[in-house]
Design brief:
about 240 residues; alpha/beta; eight-stranded parallel β-barrel; about 35% helix; globular
Length: about 240
């Protein structure tokens, strides 16, 4: 296990640059595509991307659980094998849905990376294992994060050396019950950093965690007002488009 000093240095390297949300997309560049990731690297930004599991257990880079919004295909991502997903093109492009291993090879340690692991329930072992396997040869700054605290718990137990984060939103989760659930998620995930909804900042939870030395990133920053709020209450941003 790395020392606390080396872990802190790794955290600093991870949060050194703003993260392009799903890559630097827009116009002809679709989110979570090779073109979007290449553009983010070229512009000198970090990258945030989404990963979920194919039907045959491969970590795929794709945000939605369904194919309909981002491709001309239909149905659940999890209902298709990796080979079947590779035959599906991202809408308006010649790009197939990529595997995480393919995108790691593309990035090639040229940008800090946040991987949001998308799992709707407590059954995270197969997905976390697939992400872990893809990351095994990758040496650049990378943080694995999720709304699901079981993802952080899996990595804390099995790959404690891997930086892990908890994605947090207070939207629809206010009041005493919401606070209890957030505290429980923090306890289970044991995160090295938080990725906090910009709409919730300033937040007592985020402020307390940040005061204790845990970095707080914030998503998804879209406006000048968002940027000003992030500058006051967070350590780094995940943005939709770069500042003008």
């Amino acid at each position: 296990m790395p020392s606390s000093k080396s872990r802190q240095a790794e955290l600093q390297a991870l949060g050194a640059r703003p993260f392009a949300h799903r890559g630097l997309h827009g116009g002809e560049r679709i989110e979570n595509s090779r073109a979007a990731f290449a553009a983010a690297i070229e512009a000198g930004f970090g990258i945030e991307l989404d990963v979920q599991l194919s039907g045959d257990g491969v970590a795929m880079v794709f945000h939605d659980y369904q194919l309909d919004r981002l491709t001309d295909a239909h149905g659940d991502v999890a209902a298709h094998s990796a080979d079947e997903l590779a035959a599906i093109r991202l809408r308006g492009t010649d790009e197939p849905i990529p595997t995480l291993a393919e995108i790691l090879a593309l990035i090639a340690a040229r940008a800090p990376l946040l991987i949001e692991v998308k799992s709707p329930d407590r059954h995270v072992r197969a997905l976390c294992g697939a992400v872990d396997a893809a990351l095994a040869p990758y040496l650049a700054p990378v943080g694995v994060m999720s709304f699901n605290p079981e993802v952080g718990r899996w990595f804390a137990r099995r790959r404690p050396e891997r930086l892990r984060g908890l994605v947090v939103t207070e939207n629809g989760k206010s009041g005493r019950l919401g606070r209890i659930k957030r505290n429980l998620s923090l306890w289970r995930a044991k995160p090295d950093f938080l990725a906090y909804d910009i709409r919730d900042l300033p937040s007592d939870v985020a402020a307390l965690v940040r005061f204790g030395g845990t970095p707080v990133y914030t998503w998804t920053v879209r406006t000048d007002d968002d940027r000003a709020r992030a500058a006051a209450h967070a350590d780094q941003i995940v943005f939709e488009q770069p500042a003008a």
